[in-house]
Each structure stands twice: as C-alpha cells, then as structure tokens.
C-alpha cells in the first residue's frame, strides 16, 4: 500500500506542474517520488493505481467497488460494511480518520458536480463509473460521516442469466418476456436494495431494436443493452435555490421525444400523474419501479403519490385501470434477490378501485389472474406462456397473496442486484 507521505508528494508535484491528472502523469510523478531503484514495472504500475485511487478515485474503498460480488458499500464513520448479496457484513478496510473519510466524501461528490459541506451536509451523486453515492456529514450524521455507495454492474443481466442463477424461475421468465413483447405497461416493485433496477434493466433489454426507449430518472442508473436509448436526468437547485428540474417536467419533455417506451426509473412523487396521463394517450409498454412491500400495497402507494400531483383517488384509479396492467414483485431473501410474484391490476367492487390479483406466485405457480393475463397477452398477438393456461390451485382468494413456505417450481438460489 502507498503511504500518505507518497500521496502527498505526488499530489504536490502534479499541482506544481499544473497538468491534468491522467494515468500517465500519475505514473510519471510516482516514478519521480518513489524509490524506483527497488521497484519493477509491475510494482510501479500497482503503486500508481493506488495513488490514483487516493487522488481521484474512491481511495481505500476502490477494491470493494471493483469487486463484482459487492452490491453496496456503507461507511459509518470509520467502519466499513459491504453487501455481497447475502446481507451486510463488516470488513477491515483502513479508511483513516473521520477527517479522512470526510475529505473522501467531499472529493467524490465534488467530482460528480455536487456540493457537500457544512452548509449542505447531505448530497446524492453519481460517480463516473455509475456508482451511486449518498453522503451525510456531521452534525446531521451523529457518528458520521456516513457514505452509502450502490455499485453499478457494467453489463446488465440477461433474462437467461437470471434464470440460471435462480432469481427468476423459467416458467415465470416466459411471462416476463411475453409482457414486454405485448407492450403491456408494468411496474417493478420491492423494497430498498431488492433488485428492482436490475430486473428493469434486464426487461428493457428485451425491447425490440426497432423501438426507441426514453428514460426519465432522478439519478441515471438504468443502462439497458439496447441500441436506441436516450436518458433524461433530474437536476437539483443550485446554491441560489434555482435551476431545479424535476421528474414531472422531464416526463412532459420525454413525450415530445417520440418515445416508443417511456420509462420512469423510480416513481416517488407527483410525476406519477404525468406518467399515467402519458400511458393513457397511446404510449404502450411503459415501465418504472416503485417502492412497495407487496403488490397489494401498490394502489395505496400510487394514491399517496397521486395526491402529491393533485389527482384525487377516484380519478387516479380510473387512470390507473387504463394505464398500467402488470406488477412484478422482487424480494430480497437470505438466498438472494428473487422474483416473488406477477400480478395483474384489475378494477373491482362498486367503486371500481384497482387491486393487484396474482397471476403467478413463487412456489405456487399460476394465480387466479393467470387466464386474464393470458387473454390480455393473446389480444396483442403474442403467444401465451403455457403456465398462464394452467389451472389455479391456490388457497388464497382473488386479490390475495400468500407467502409459500417451500418453493416448488424454482431454484433456491438468488442473484445480486
């Protein structure tokens, strides 16, 4: 490992030369400052990589972020925790003092064009490699600084890979592909870190190459494998409190960009109203993610978000019934992230309120809404997956979802988000 003295000397040399911080200038500075007489080329390059991490990268956290098994890196003061898909565990990483962690957080956020200081002690940022960073400084962070980094997978999973790793059972995978092919609008739901973005990335990769995908996100995270994707990212206000551009405005702008598939990375506010309006005006096949614990919670969550956009409950359910058809629930388990259920959104009762009715449930197979989903897919001239033609033998009533105790038709393995 490189010591702080060497890093300081290299930093001073680069600053004095007033040259850009490039790999070449770092190697040159390390060669000039280190005792190269006892270093070979391999050791020199390794030392240069370590110095670069300390100067412009994630410092001591860089090896964790480079580990493909790591999904989250959390720093609480000077303690570091990681999640490799099996839950959080503490790891011995020498991040230095609290002041060192503070400087690291400020450097990372500044490199992403965001502000982090005593006047603005909380910041969201997206690093150059796609990693999402959230940082909080004291005194807001009582034992901080706190850093939360969500790593970014450079290549999204294919649907076959999710099947192989046990996250999606093969019978359910055919339903996912059919929903995308039939241009049905859908939401991917789950809790924090459950793998919603991972699944959405995979599904967007199934969109025909002749179609244009327009992404609207608060922080750019979606990178589907598709030749025609354009993204819009929300912007926060500047230090004067001006210049903010929210998701609602971006949804309206996206409608003028000839989208074949309009995708909202995460529905979290009044933009739900604009999204439902868009999906009701001929924009089939839209998608998004939503924080919800279960499909039965989706209508209530959308009601709450709709009120933020000024849409009363009856009007929201009327728009919801016509705009969205399917809900995919993904859940984080001790075995990994797994597709838990596929539900159809159907209006019912005297008030025609929308409810989520299971079409497939992990461990139980077809649900009561399976035939209805199959008929909807068939009406779009797409072959119906065989599992949706099977009879439902569950014990729960329509609109209800039970939690199976033992999976029957799938693997017990999961996949990291």
TrEMBL record:
It holds the Pfam family T2SSE. Residues 400-409 have a biased composition (Polar residues). GO terms for molecular function: ATP hydrolysis activity. InterPro entries: P-loop_NTPase, T2SS/T4SS_dom, T4SS_GSP_E_ATPase, TadA-like_ATPase. SUPFAM superfamilies: P-loop containing nucleoside triphosphate hydrolases (SSF52540). Residues 57-328 form the Bacterial type II secretion system protein E domain. Coiled coil: none annotated. Residues 387-417 are annotated as: Disordered. Belongs to the GSP E family. This is TadA family conjugal transfer-associated ATPase. It comes from Micromonospora zingiberis. The lineage of its organism: Bacteria, Bacillati, Actinomycetota, Actinomycetes, Micromonosporales.
């Amino acid at each position: 490992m490189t010591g702080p003295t060497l890093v300081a000397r290299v930093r001073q040399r680069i600053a004095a030369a007033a040259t850009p911080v490039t790999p070449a200038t770092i190697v040159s500075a390390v060669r000039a400052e280190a005792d190269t007489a006892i270093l070979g080329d391999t050791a020199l390059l390794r030392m240069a990589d370590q110095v670069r991490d300390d100067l412009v990268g994630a410092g001591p956290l860089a090896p964790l972020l480079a580990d493909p098994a790591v999904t989250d890196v959390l720093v609480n003061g000077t303690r570091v925790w990681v999640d490799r898909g099996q839950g959080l565990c503490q790891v011995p990483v020498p991040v230095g003092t609290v002041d060192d962690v503070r400087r690291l957080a400020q450097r990372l956020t500044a490199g992403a064009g965001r502000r982090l200081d005593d006047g603005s002690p909380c910041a969201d940022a997206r690093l150059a490699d796609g990693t999402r960073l959230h940082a909080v400084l004291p005194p807001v962070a009582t034992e901080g600084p706190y850093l939360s980094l969500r790593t970014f997978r450079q290549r999204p999973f294919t649907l076959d890979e999710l099947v192989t790793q046990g996250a999606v059972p093969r019978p359910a995978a055919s339903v996912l592909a059919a929903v995308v092919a039939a241009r049905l609008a859908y939401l991917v739901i789950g809790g924090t870190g459950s793998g919603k973005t991972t699944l959405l990335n995979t599904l967007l990769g199934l969109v025909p190459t002749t179609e244009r995908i327009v992404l609207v996100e608060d922080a750019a995270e979606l990178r589907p494998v598709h030749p025609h994707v354009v993204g819009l990212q929300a912007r926060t206000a500047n230090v004067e409190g001006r210049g903010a551009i929210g998701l609602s405005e971006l949804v309206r702008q996206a409608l003028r960009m000839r989208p074949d598939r309009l995708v909202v990375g995460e529905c979290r506010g009044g933009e739900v109203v604009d999204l439902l309006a868009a999906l009701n005006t001929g924009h089939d096949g839209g998608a998004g993610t939503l924080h919800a614990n279960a499909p039965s919670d989706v209508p209530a969550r959308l009601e709450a978000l709709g009120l933020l956009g000024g849409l009363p409950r009856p009007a929201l359910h009327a728009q919801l019934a016509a705009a969205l058809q399917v809900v995919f629930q993904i859940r984080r388990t001790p075995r990994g992230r797994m597709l838990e259920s596929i539900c159809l959104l159907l209006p019912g009762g005297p008030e025609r309120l929308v409810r989520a009715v299971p079409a497939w449930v992990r461990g139980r197979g077809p649900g009561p809404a399976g035939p209805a989903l199959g008929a909807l897919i068939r009406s779009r001239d797409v072959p119906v997956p065989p599992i949706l033609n099977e009879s439902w033998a569950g014990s729960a009533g329509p609109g209800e979802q039970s939690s199976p105790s033992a999976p029957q038709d799938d693997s017990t393995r999961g996949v990291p988000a």
